[in-house]
């Protein structure tokens, strides 16, 4: 099986590396050609000139893109993935809206399968092939892709139908961004009472309230500037906007989610957009001064 991979950002590049390590025949494409060529030289794979060229070379194409608009740009048009002639399966692993996944399914060429399979886990999990994959398909539909999913992740959960992966990714991310916001508030409260930041985090980490993300993101919360950005405030805001729109469409209420979104928007307006989402702690400290 020849695999095409499009989207070599913070998550996509380590995922492509793991596919290459698994022995998959791999061709890659990225909007920035220099990045694709550098990675290809590192991992020993080929580079496609366009998304269409990528789909012409591959049996299955995996995309790891930032948002609906990016996915549209890569899939559609005369040089898009869907214009290619070879690939029969397309797997979108970025965080997309369910409406976008439904549109891809509608617009796909005849005989082509589109599967949404977003992931949970930060860049560390992508590097270590420890991602959770939420696949909008049946077990039977996922079976041909299992070696690829296993090369990138620790577990794949099949959710039965297109778009279900996208919904679950938004649900999980809304929880993550809520925890991130609550952690920032809890730390700010403790620090305002004179408790050392590391000691406060020690207590939170040892408590029943600690989620796995708090453990692996601890270095960022305690010294954001000393570590590479893994997930920006702007991307978190995008996630929560898509989630809020989905909640409205489904008629469900998300009062805490709306407050999380409001804080992310305010932080982005204040210049925090391209900082790691751990910077919400710095933002809340500033608000409390």
Present the secondary structure layout.
Blueprint: E1 2-6, H1 12-21, E2 25-29, H2 33-43, E3 46-47, H3 51-57, E4 60-63, H4 68-75, E5 89-92, H5 98-107, E6 113-116, E7 119-120, H6 123-127, E8 131-135, H7 139-142, H8 146-152, E9 153-158, H9 164-192, H10 197-206, H11 212-216, H12 218-222, H13 233-250, H14 255-272, H15 280-288
Parallel strand pairs: 1-2, 1-4, 2-3, 4-5, 5-6, 8-9
Antiparallel strand pairs: 7-8
Describe the protein in words.
With 289 residues, the chain is of the alpha/beta class. It has two domains: 2-160, NAD(P)-binding Rossmann-like Domain (Rossmann fold); 167-288, N-(1-d-carboxylethyl)-l-norvaline Dehydrogenase, domain 2 (Orthogonal Bundle). It has 15 helices and nine strands. The chain has helices at 12-21, 33-43, 51-57, 68-75, 98-107, 123-127, 139-142, 146-152, 164-192, 197-206, 212-216, 218-222, 233-250, 255-272, 280-288; strands at residues 2-6, 25-29, 46-47, 60-63, 89-92, 113-116, 119-120, 131-135, 153-158. The strands form two sheets. A six-stranded parallel sheet has the order 3-2-1-4-5-6, with helices on both faces. Strands 7-8-9 form a three-stranded mixed sheet. It starts with a strand and ends with a helix.
């Amino acid at each position: 099986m020849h695999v095409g991979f499009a989207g070599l950002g913070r998550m996509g590049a380590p995922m492509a590396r793991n596919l290459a390590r698994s022995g998959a025949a791999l061709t890659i494409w990225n909007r920035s050609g220099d990045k694709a060529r550098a990675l290809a030289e590192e991992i020993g794979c080929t580079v496609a000139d366009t998304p269409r060229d990528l789909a012409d070379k591959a049996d299955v194409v995996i995309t790891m893109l930032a948002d609906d608009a990016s996915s549209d740009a890569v899939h559609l048009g005369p040089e898009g993935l869907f214009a290619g002639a070879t690939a029969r399966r397309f797997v979108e692993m970025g965080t997309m809206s369910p409406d976008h996944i439904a549109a891809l399914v509608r617009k796909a060429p005849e005989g082509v399968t589109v599967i949404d399979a977003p992931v949970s886990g930060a860049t560390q999990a992508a590097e270590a092939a420890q991602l959770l994959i939420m696949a909008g398909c049946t077990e039977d539909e996922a079976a041909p892709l299992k070696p690829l999913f296993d090369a990138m992740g620790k577990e794949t959960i099949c959710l039965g139908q297109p778009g279900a992966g996208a919904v679950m990714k938004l649900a999980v991310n809304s929880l993550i961004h809520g925890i991130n916001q609550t952690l920032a508030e809890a730390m700010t409260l403790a620090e305002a009472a004179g408790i050392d930041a590391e000691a406060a985090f020690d207590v939170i980490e040892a408590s029943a309230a600690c989620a796995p993300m708090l453990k692996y993101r601890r270095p960022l919360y305690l010294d954001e500037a000393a570590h590479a950005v893994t997930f920006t405030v702007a991307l978190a805001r995008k996630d929560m906007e898509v989630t809020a729109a989905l909640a409205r469409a489904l008629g469900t209420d998300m009062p805490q989610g709306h407050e999380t979104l409001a804080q992310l928007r305010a932080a982005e307006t204040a210049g925090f957009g391209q900082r790691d989402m751990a910077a919400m702690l710095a933002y809340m400290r500033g608000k409390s001064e």
